[in-house]
Design brief:
403 residues, alpha/beta, 6-stranded mixed sheet, 4-stranded parallel sheet, 16 helices, 45% helix, elongated, TrpB-like_PALP, pyridoxal phosphate, Thr_deHydtase_catblc, Ser/Thr_deHydtase_PyrdxlP-BS, threonine deaminase activity
Length: 403
């Protein structure tokens, strides 16, 4: 594990630059789970994620000669911005290699911090391989996103801050990709209070560290696919794996559907925008993947808030349908004046609101003289949708639902 003294030193070094983010009590989750739940809001950190902690600490520990050479990093986005803003603070050159599918938000944010951005590879591991070769070619100092003691020590400062606020925590939930965050947090926790239970949460679509933990041997994945791009790491590395096996008590997985639910939950209940990786811990709680027996106080790390706007829109739309606040129906009408008015009157009687309508008279699936109406409705829950169906049937409309 990382020496506690190094984590305290990191705290002192980074305190001049990073934000001490809120550690807030969640009344919603606490009531739901009958346990006091506290959220560590790193989505409110500078650059929108915890990664700045480790990046700043790593660069601060470089020699003056190394700083003059410049730095390079490979990242899906959050580490990129952490390295870029830290390099800018020290006035040194930064090159960031990002996977080609990195959300535009993260690419633009990194460029805006004066870093040179190179898009390369289908995932982090391919970008990482390219960055290593580039570092050798141009004599740059490689700042690893997680396989680096100074990085892990910087991330471990999160644990110190949480304990400063709530000293008697029983459990900490931490998102896991490469393992730098949980390595730092677990190292600090186990040296301060070995009884604190550390639980890692990974995405089902990026299972390398999860499978490695449970088999006690490194198992790499052939590919990764998850909306939680911040923890979409294909391979497990030995350094973080060893710390995780030593210090982490439990390791669980959540799927993309559960992560999306958690993103929407945080947006609605807490008015917080949290990316998929950051919401994975909330997904584990909402879907009761964690045994909270005998746990009175639980800390939950929301690791970042840099979610792509298009992805957020998809999550919101799907969430509205799943929570019965939207429904989409196809209705076949006789194509004559007044037919659509009769349908809209029925919908009005059901007190539903039309938000989208499409009128098709030319589909080859229709009989001559018919029209297909596709309507998206705003509704107020499952009972309201049952009322819509009931009234449409009573009025003689034949319809199907689009899920």
């Amino acid at each position: 594990m990382i020496e506690l003294n190094k984590i305290y030193q990191a705290k002192q070094k980074i305190s001049e630059f990073i934000l001490k983010t809120p550690f807030v009590h969640s009344s919603f989750l606490s009531d739901f789970l009958h346990t006091d739940i506290f959220l560590k809001c790193e989505n409110l950190q500078k650059t929108g994620a915890y990664k700045i902690r480790g990046a700043y600490n790593a660069i601060a520990n470089l020699s003056e000669k190394q700083k003059a050479q410049g730095v390079i990093a490979a990242s899906a986005g959050n580490h990129a911005q952490g390295v870029a803003i830290s390099a800018k603070k020290f006035g040194i050159k930064a090159v960031i290699v990002m996977p080609e599918a990195t959300p535009l938000l993260k690419v633009s944010a990194t460029k805006n911090l004066d870093a040179q951005v190179i898009l390369k590879g289908d995932n982090f591991d391919e970008a990482y391989a390219f960055a290593l070769n580039y570092a050798k070619q141009y004599n740059l100092n490689f700042i690893h996103p997680f396989e680096n003691e100074n990085i892990m020590a910087g991330q471990g400062t999160l644990m110190l801050e949480m304990l400063d606020e709530v000293s008697d925590l029983d459990m900490i939930l931490v998102p896991v990709g490469g393992g730098g965050l949980i390595s730092g947090i677990a190292s600090a926790a186990k040296q301060i209070n070995p009884d604190i239970k550390i639980v890692g949460v990974s995405a089902k679509g990026a299972p390398a560290m999860f499978e490695s933990f449970h088999s006690k041997n490194i198992i790499n994945s052939k590919s990764v696919r998850t909306i939680a791009d911040g923890i979409a790491v294909r391979d497990a590395n030995k350094i973080n794996f060893n710390i995780i096996v030593e210090c982490v008590d439990e390791f669980i997985q959540v799927d993309d559907e559960e992560i999306a639910n958690a993103v929407l939950y945080l947006l609605e209940k807490h008015k917080m925008i949290v990316e998929g990786a950051g919401a994975s811990t909330i997904a584990a709680l909402l879907h009761k993947k964690v045994n909270l027996n005998q746990c009175k106080k639980v800390g939950v790390v929301l690791s970042g808030g840099n979610i792509d706007v298009q992805m957020l829109n998809i999550i919101i739309e799907k969430g509205l349908f799943k929570s019965f606040r939207k429904m989409c129906i196809n209705v076949t009408l006789v194509d004559k004046p007044g037919a659509l008015t009769a349908l809209s009157d029925a919908i009005k009687e059901a007190n539903a609101n039309i938000v989208k309508i499409d009128y098709d008279r030319f589909s080859t699936k229709l009989d001559y003289g018919d029209a297909m109406i596709s309507i998206t409705l705003e509704t107020k829950g499952i009972e309201h949708q049952e009322l819509v169906r009931k009234i449409l049937l009573e009025k003689g409309f034949h319809f199907s639902e689009i899920s």
